[in-house]
Write a structure and sequence with these properties.
Blueprint (H helix, E strand, L loop, with lengths): L5 H20 L6 H11 L6 E3 L3 E4 L4 E4 L14 H21 L10 H15 L4 E6 L7 E3 L12 H4 L6 E5 H5 L8 H6 L5 H9 L14 H11 L12 H9 L9 H15 L2 H5 L4 H10 L5 H7 L4
Parallel strand pairs: 3-4, 4-6
Antiparallel strand pairs: 1-2, 2-3, 5-6
Helix pairs in contact: 2-3, 2-4, 3-9, 3-10, 9-10, 10-11
Length: 313
């Protein structure tokens, strides 16, 4: 070996000799498409096994499905049917979401940063730790909520639900998902805001709960679940930084579940995907202040407000 500097030559020699054991121990790189396929093969609703205390288990990804027989819309079903439906929605959400982030979806190639997020999510599912999906009925104002690797604060308005599960977990409210009117309002609210007669209030409280037309019944459940999974990676909702959960659901799952007009949804989907392709924005992810300025200066921070203005009334 001939080097222009003895020190460099010595470092190169150490690098070659010292690298061999590490290289031998390093696991071979597996492309995202193959990792995704292997993961999806393990998420089979037919392999769910009943457990005690209204829980179903799925080995492989180590999924624990708790109290979800009524999923998705607080329905009465045979034991395990709701849990199997939820696992099917999870599988569909992962398939579509991971394909999108890998750049193989209908919207084309995104910035490589998002493929890296997909690898992180697959790694989390490959980890043997338990992953919990729990269902509640009329217990929170949100349709669904996910735990964060940062933990949960006692000041969180959803602490009552989140402290009952361990990270990583998703809690889904089947009343909110189904557009069912809460039973926890007072009578005056039912009369003044929902315009219910006294006999309707009585029936709602003691019989079959009402589904008023103005309340939203969630349709794209796969997109909702993938949205919650992104929170497992530590991404949070934000107005001043890129909101990946919102961008991924909008781009990868065809717009917003709260907008029924196909043309408006297609336009918002294109905008979200274009943001996810912006090299300048994502290449500055390691510079939070610069990324924040780009998010604002390019007008990306107005997307959620524009979409909300188009929500179905």
């Amino acid at each position: 070996m001939c080097c222009w500097h003895k020190g460099i030559c010595w470092l190169l020699l150490i690098g070659v000799v010292g690298a061999r054991p590490a290289l031998a121990e390093r696991e071979p790189y597996v492309p995202l498409a193959e990792r995704s396929r292997q993961l999806l093969d393990t998420i089979d609703p037919g392999r769910l096994v009943a457990n005690a205390d209204d829980e179903h288990l799925l080995a492989g990804p180590n999924l624990h499905i708790r109290q979800c027989d009524g999923y998705p819309y607080n329905e009465v079903a045979d034991s395990g049917n709701g849990s199997r439906t939820l696992v099917g929605d999870l599988r569909d959400g992962l398939q579509r979401g991971l394909e999108c982030l890998a750049g193989n979806g209908p919207m084309g190639r995104l910035h490589p940063y998002h493929e890296y997020q997909a690898h992180r999510l697959v790694s989390l599912f490959e980890d043997p730790q338990a992953k919990t999906f729990a269902c509640v009925a009329d217990a929170m104002f949100a349709t669904a909520v996910a735990t964060s690797p940062r933990g949960v604060s006692i000041d969180d308005p959803l602490f009552a639900q989140l402290h009952l599960v361990s990270y990583p977990a998703v809690v889904i409210d089947t009343y909110r998902l189904g557009g069912i009117l809460s039973r926890q309002h007072d009578d005056e609210t039912y009369r003044a805001f929902f315009h219910l007669a006294d006999e309707q209030i009585l029936e709602h409280r003691n019989g079959q709960p009402l589904r008023p037309a103005k309340l939203h019944r969630y349709r794209n459940r796969s997109g909702l679940i993938f949205h919650e999974l992104i929170h497992w990676l530590g991404h949070e909702h934000s107005a001043i930084y890129p909101d990946l959960t919102h961008l991924y659901e909008t781009c990868c799952f065809g717009g917003s579940d709260f907008i029924s007009d196909p043309g408006r949804n297609a336009a918002y989907q294109q905008v979200a995907c274009n943001i996810l392709k912006d090299d300048q924005l994502w290449s500055n992810g390691y510079k939070p202040y610069k990324q924040m300025r780009l998010w604002h200066d390019k007008g990306y921070d107005t997307l959620k407000a524009q979409m909300r203005a188009d929500f179905d009334s």
